[in-house]
Amino acid sequence: MNMFKTVVSAAFVSVGLATSALAAGVEINASSTGLALQGYDPVAYFTEGAPTKGDWQITTTYDDATYRFASKEHKELFEADPQAYLPAYGGYCAFGAAMGFKFDGDPSYWRIVDDKLYLNLSQSIQQRWEGDIPGFITQADGNWTNIALEDPAALLGQ
Question: Which of 1, 14, 23, 81 has its CA at a distance of 20 to 30 angstroms from the CA of residue 72?
């Protein structure tokens, strides 16, 4: 593992996250059952301005991931234009993507920037990301083309 990977890995472990916190998905951060956003409604961030748990009875599948919604109206909005509501970087941590890694995005640490939903791993990571949102988005966008299809553990050299 090179020095950069060691430093970044140590930073994420220092906030209480070991590699076991890595997402189960590859391009989309979904649980082993295929559930995206840990069951949170992707539309609610835009309509309610807050993370909202989805109803297990109101779901749809998009790109092999299952999304839950708080209402049928939210499901309809999503199905009409999924790209408008999908989180950046497949729901992985935006700061992690900027560093070239894929860590779980926590639905509680989020921000909408230029009509795109971004998740981060923890409160402390969210605060670091907020220190230079445009710069970190530019870095993450550049990295994502190379890491989107990579297994999260492989990016850490494991």
Answer: 23
